[in-house]
Task: structure prediction
Amino acid sequence: MQIILLHPRFTHAKSVTLTHRHLMLGVVAFVAAVLLMTSLLFYFISSHAASLPAPLRDMFAGAAQGDEAQKEKFLKENLALMARRVGEMQAQLMRLDALGERVQGLAGVKPTEFNFKELPGRGGVEPMDSTSSRDLTMSEFKALLDAMSHDVERRADYMNVVESTLMSDKIKSKLLPTSQPVNVSYNASTFGRRLDPFSGRSAMHEGIDFAAPIGTPIMAAAGGVVTVAEFHPQYGNMMEIDHGNDMITRYAHTSRLLMHVGDIVRRGQHIADIGTTGRSTGPHLHFEVRIKGVAQDPHKFLLAGANQARLASK
Result:
């Protein structure tokens, strides 16, 4: 870059050549001058703030207060957001505690073994190096709240699935014929092949006989719906209860039936009385368990119920 200088005092025109180096030095000198003037102005304002004219002093004070107001507004907005998230998490935790107590009851876990309302014990060694621990930043704390909220929601969904499964198992267990229908200590005849008391020939006995005096109460072995309540030439006064899943129980040779078709019965409910009606040699209850029409050994169901009751009493 060439600059030509003209002046009446000059006998000849003079020229000055500026290189890129000269231009860079000029720019650097200009920036340095601006920074120096800014520093001097800041020093002058800081050291003579009290003696400055009121309008100028208020202008600088207003700028500083504006920055503080922006920071305070930012903090208030973030604190309000985090307070709302904490409130949502508290509501989620209360729901999770209630759900946990329901699952605890369904699972048979005693409150003394696990209490949802008590905080678990925690501890650890204090860090020896102070640089290994530090305060959380605002963004880190917000990310931690988001992660905890997501984790609480995921655990609540999991607990809902567990509760549904336990509830289904609980219902199924109540519908299994595991309760002894007559309060006697022995069976007059067991399940399987035996000599028929009338013909003397070997025949299949498809149930268990409970011998007891006439009028002894007969209880439902499980909950269900009465599907048959009638007189049968072989079984006498007979009742059948449907427990779902193609499972029924049959109560035969009774002296009287206390339930009717369509009645809903619960486990242990008095449904009939011991008798000797039908093909019978004396007062007893003929008790059968059938799955899809096939006779099952009732003893395995009653034994499972007895074992469960023994474990529950411990």
